[in-house]
Amino acid sequence: MSTEKSLALVLRLVDFSETSVIATLFTRDFGKIHGLAKGARRLKGPFESALDLLCLSRLVFLRKSSDALDLLTEAKLERRFRAAARDLSRLYAGYYVAELLDELTDDGDPHPELFDFACETLAALDTGPQPVSSVLMSFELSALRVLGHLPLLDQCVECGTEMNGSGRVAFGMLAGGVLCARCRPGKPKVVSLSGAAWQMLRDYAQSDEKRPSGEPDRRAYGEVRGVLNQYLSHLLGRRPRMHEYLGVLAS
Ligand SMILES: [Zn+2]
Fold first, then answer.
1. pTM of the full predicted structure?
2. Which domains does the chain have, with CATH numbers?
């Protein structure tokens, strides 16, 4: 057993007893962990209010070597997620970020880049001027990219032919990317995208600040939403829970 420290985002909390909780956290240095926090529900304690949902906290924990839960010993609040004070869709958008981090990452598999981007995303939902649709699309595609699930968009996923986006583009859900006219026939679960929607996917999938941040074009966004929703549902094996609550994710 070793004592570890890391910045961590609180993804999920389950009551364990009257005063204790089991927390799922996405840590910057150790990836996703599950830990028991004894006395977390006491007002005065080693956690105070640093273990609320989506808090960014400085965590100290004892790492267990086996399947046993880690033991959280201390947490200090760095930043609270306050989007609920702004509007409900921003709060739900935060829950959606937590859901994706929880569902798409494996225990003990750190991704500092994704951690930092998740913190930026929550800050943008909290106080930023960007619309929720745009913030979430950036997060979804970045998470897919960092975790190695980003669909191939520039070339046919089967034969490597460069796509130029003139006319409609075929996107294969199961193939994991776009398909040229030659490779498309006979493929299951293929969606036809307009050139504008294909370009939007590419723009938001960029790894740097060139990503757009304004209000996305409505028609293209509707198409992109449809593709992302199906693609994520396919990846998770079910529809993400928060899609039901977030109108902006409807397709
Ligand atoms: Zn092809």
1. 0.94
2. 2-79 (2.40.50.140), 85-150+190-249 (1.20.1440.120)
Burial string for 100-131 (b: 16+ CB within 10 Å, else e) reads bbeebbeeeebbeebbebbbebbebbbebebb
| SS3 letters across 162-193 | ECCCCCCEEEECCCCEEECCCCCCCCCCEEEE
Output the CA 168–ligand 1 centroid distance in Å: 14
Ligand 1 centre distance from Cα of residue 230 (Å): 22
The string of DSSP letters for 141-158 reads: HHHHHHTT-PPB-SB-TT
Burial label, 159 (beta-carbon count in 10 A; 0-12, 13-18, 19+): exposed
Which mean pLDDT values do the consecutive 10-residue runs of the chain (251 residues) have?
93 93 97 94 83 95 86 95 89 96 96 97 94 95 96 96 89 94 94 95 87 91 95 94 87 71
What spacing in Å lies between the alpha carbon of 155 and ligand 1's midpoint?
8
